[in-house]
Amino acid sequence: MMSLVGLSLRLRAAGCQGSTRTVATVVSGHKTARLVRQRLQVEVQEMRRVWSGFRPGLLVLQVGNRDDSNLYISSKLRAAAEIGIDAKHLRLPDSATQEQVLQSILSVNQDPSVHGLIVQLPLDSVNPMDPERITNTVSPEKDVDGLSCINAGKLSRGDLNDCFIPCTPNGCMELIRQTVVSVAGKHAVVIGRSKIVGAPMHDLLLWSDATVTTCHSKTPDLPEQVGRADILVVGAGRAEMVRGDWLKEGAVVIDCGINHIPDVTKVSGKRVVGDVHFASANQRAGFITPVPGGVGPMTVAMLMENTVQSARRFLLKSQAVEVNHAGFHRHGNRNGEVNRK
Amino acid sequence: MMSLVGLSLRLRAAGCQGSTRTVATVVSGHKTARLVRQRLQVEVQEMRRVWSGFRPGLLVLQVGNRDDSNLYISSKLRAAAEIGIDAKHLRLPDSATQEQVLQSILSVNQDPSVHGLIVQLPLDSVNPMDPERITNTVSPEKDVDGLSCINAGKLSRGDLNDCFIPCTPNGCMELIRQTVVSVAGKHAVVIGRSKIVGAPMHDLLLWSDATVTTCHSKTPDLPEQVGRADILVVGAGRAEMVRGDWLKEGAVVIDCGINHIPDVTKVSGKRVVGDVHFASANQRAGFITPVPGGVGPMTVAMLMENTVQSARRFLLKSQAVEVNHAGFHRHGNRNGEVNRK
Predict the structure, then answer these.
(1) Which residues, if any, are the signal sequence (chains A, B) (predicted)?
(2) What H or E segment, with its residue span, contains residue B190?
(3) What is the rounded average pLDDT for all residues in chain A?
C-alpha cells in the first residue's frame, strides 16, 4: 500500500502542483542493482537446470595493469560470480602490440563458451593502440558493453531488441522504471553527448517515446532547457553544475556524474559528488538519484544483464538449430521456458 | 553586397525582433543542388586529369521493375553522367531470391571500379526479402546511401568524417549552410525520427553544436516545441501540419515532406505540398525551403557528393599504399592536390 507521503511525491512527479512540500524520493541504485542481480541469479539457475551444465560466459580483456582498471574488473568478476556467470579475466602485458590485442579478441569471438566480451578501457600499453578499432573488433553478438558502431547504429535507429545497450544509460532507464513515472509523451532532457552516456541515453528515451532535448557544452541557455524537463539525465562531468532552482517541480533527476571535490571534514580530504547539486535539487525534484549509490552500482548490474541476455540469445539460436535438425539434445522440458522473460 | 531586404531577413533570422515585416527568403534546392553538381563536376575532371583515366563509379542495384523506382534510378543515372561519374544499373528480376541479391552485393563489394553501391528500395520481389540484412551487406566503405548500421552508428556518435551521411539530411544541412545562419549554439527542432531523415538529421545538427529537440507522433505539445526552434527540420509525412503561427519569428524552416493533396485546379486533380503550411510559414520564417524544389533535388545531389567522396577516399588509400611501397604509378603531379578539398 502506498503511504500518503509516497502518494504526494507521485502526484508531484506527475506534474501536479500545490502538493505538500516534501523532499524528493531518493531512487537507490544499490537497491535497484540488487534486485537486477537477484533476478539474473534466478534466471541463470533456471538456465543451468534446463540446459544441463550451461553457464553464461563473460570475458574481461585487460591490457596492462592500471590500479583503477583492476578495481573495476574485480567488481565485475565478483558480481558475475554471485549471479553464476562464468567470468574470466585475460590480462595482456603492457608490452602487447595492437595486433596481439586484435588476435586475442578474434580468438575469443570464436569461443562458444564466451557470450560477452568486454575490453577494459583505457588500454594501458607502451605501444600505440586505436581503441575505436579494438572496440569494433569485438563481435557485435558478444559486445555486451554496447560500444561497437553496429550496436550504436541499431540503438540510434530504434532497433532496441537487436542490439546491446550501453550499461550506464541502460541502468538509468532501469532507475527511471523504478519511479513508475511513464516516459512516453514526457519531455526528457539529456545533458551530455558522450558515446557511453549522453548519446545512447538520448536514443533510449526517444525510443521510449519521450520528446528528447540534448544539451551540451555549447548550449547557451542550460537552466532554461533544464527547466522544461519532466525527466532529466545528466552526464556532463561537472561537479554540482545543475542547481535545484533550475528544475521543473516534480522532475525525475538521474545523475550520472562522479566528481571529486575537496572536503576538509574527510580523512581523504575529498568527497564524491554528482553533476547535480543534490541538496537543492532534492527540494524540488520528484525523484532523484544520489551520488554515490545511484547510477554507479547500476552499470555493473546492467553489464551482467547484457551478458545473460547474450547467453539467452545464444540458447535461442542453438534451440532453433536443434529444431531445424529435429534432434533435441537439451535436458529438462522441451518448451524453452528458460528463454522467455 | 547585401541588399537592405537581405539584411533585414538576416537580422530576423538571427533572432532580432522589430525588423520590417517581409516574407521569408526562399532557399532553392534546385539552385543549391546545381551548385553542388557543378562543384563535383570540376572535382571529377581534376581526378581524371591527375589520375589518368580514373572515374568515380556508382552502381544502382534494383530488384524488380517498379515504375517509381525506375524514375528515381533514371534521375540518379542522369545526374551521375552529367558529373562524370561512371554509373551502372544492375537490375535483377522480381524472381530473384534473397541469396541471389546478397551474392550480387558481395560481388560488387569486391569490384574496385565501384566506389558507391546503393540498393534501390523498396525491393520488388516475389520472394521474401529482409531489407535490413540486404542494406547491411553493402560494404560500409561503399554505402553511399549511409543506411548501414555501421554508418548510422558512426554518425550518431559523432564520427562524421569517417562515415557516409544519409543523402536527405545531408542535403538539409547544405540548404541550412546556404542561409549563412550559424548552427552552433542554436536551438534546433527535428520533427520525425525515421532512419533516413529524422534520426540522422538529429545527429548532424547535434554534432554541428546545436541544442537539438526531437519531436514525433507521441509529442503532446508540438506547436510549443516548434515555437522554440531557431532551426526547424520537418520530416513528419503529414501534409501542411506545421502552421505559420507555430514558428519562432525568423526561424530557418527546412521541409522534407512530399505529400499529394487534392487540387481541382490541376489537370491531375492533385498537387504536391510539404509538411509545412508554406503560405503562413512564409510570413513568419526567416528562411524556408519550398515543396517541390527544396529538399527534393538535394537528395540526388548529395548521393553524388557521397560517391565522389568515396572515390576520393579510395584514391587517398591507393596513394598511401603507393607511398608505402615507394612505387608511384600515378600520372600528373605527385602532391596529391586532387585529394584535398
Answers:
(1) none
(2) strand B187-191
(3) 90
